[in-house]
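Let's study a protein:

___
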Amino acid sequence: MGCLSTSWTSLPISLFLLLMFIIARQYALETEDEQINTMKLSEVLDKLINNATYDKRLRPNYGGKPVDVGITIHVSSISAVSEVDMDFTLDFYMRQTWQDPRLAFGEVDLGLPNKISSLTVGVDYLDKLWKPDTFFPNEKRSFFHVATTHNSFLRIDKDGTVYTSQRLTVTATCSMKLQLFPMDSQRCKLEIESYAYSTDEIAYYWCSRDNNNCTGIKKEEIELPSYAFDDRNICMNRTVFKNASGSYSRLIVTFIFDRESGFYMLQIFLPSGLVVVISWVSFWINRDSAPSRTIIGVMTILTETHLMTGTNRRLPPVSYIKAVDVYLGFSYLLVVLALIEYAFVAYTKKKNEDRKRKEKRMGGGSERRQPIQTPAAPDIVTDARLAECTCNSMPVSIIAVMQKKEKYCLRHSHIDIGSRFFFPLTFTIFNLLFWIILLAKAKRLPFFSDIEQFRCINFPFHDE
């Protein structure tokens, strides 16, 4: 009875130990299979770059047809568009694909349900392969992203097709035309080309040679503080660049930046217009108030000067005249003319006063020699003249008022009265002509909306 009890007690323990043995054995077999699979893949990778059959110094199909290299770009951000430095900076993923028959490995049978038809390996393996010497001809500076590791990708398909992807930040030159600033649109290009291989050895295509409907450029939602930018503002072209060393296949992506003018309207044009209007206040101030009118004239000139220097400080020193220069220059001219107008008014006032004093001296001498004749009846015209002359605080005699030469009393300046109409009318006409011409040249009037589809200029590709 005791032996039977002992056997029943040891049975669960035996079953548990058997189960653990089976699990351990299965794990060992799987680990062994994984090691075998890893060894098979390593053998495949080593055979692909065997020095006896593969030389990374030679391109695929050396001596034969050119290597077709497909390019796609995914723009993640545009961090800067600088008018002063004439460049723009963008962060993007550049993907390249080409076929190298020397890297074809067929399918690797690892005993799995699906055979492996592509190999995704570390980017270090790329250094052992031939790759296109792609560069950016209009690049000023660039760098690869390496946080937390080198942002690169490599995949090899069974037929030898190679896919690479790299994340870059590139600052490229952009020859900006600022004649229409701040209503301008800038066309900035990123050029892609082989550094050493001519069109006889490498041909670049967007996506691939056989995929003509491919969108080679994609982007995230990009917001720029000073420019409007959407999918219509990207153009792709393919061309051939020729120089003394040969002809080279080149891809060009053009980014069109439409400047948002709201900031400049509030910071430049509106203040400048208000300063011009303030300069007109002096036309309503008494011409005897020389300090008030002079201060207004000088302050408006200094303000316009500050606006002009502040605006040009944000822009490069170009040799041509910009639209903003025309507006600020005309505004500056008006405030200067307003100050000159008062100088002319003060001059005519002094000249009239000198003439009056001279005529008084001449009139005083003649009064002592001529008898005084009092008019028999009141003269309405004389009374009106008497009431109208208010510039002299001394009593005016009837005899002096009646004299014909005493008509030069100080009244409101006719120059001021004319300026009250001439200056506003001139500035209004200038604004109408300026904005109509500028908006028409910038193609921002409503009837220019139908030409958006022609913004991309296609450069013809010539096969040599």
Q: What stands out?
A: The helical segments are 2-48, 262-279, 290-313, 323-369, 380-388, 398-402, 414-441. The chain has a mean pLDDT of 80.
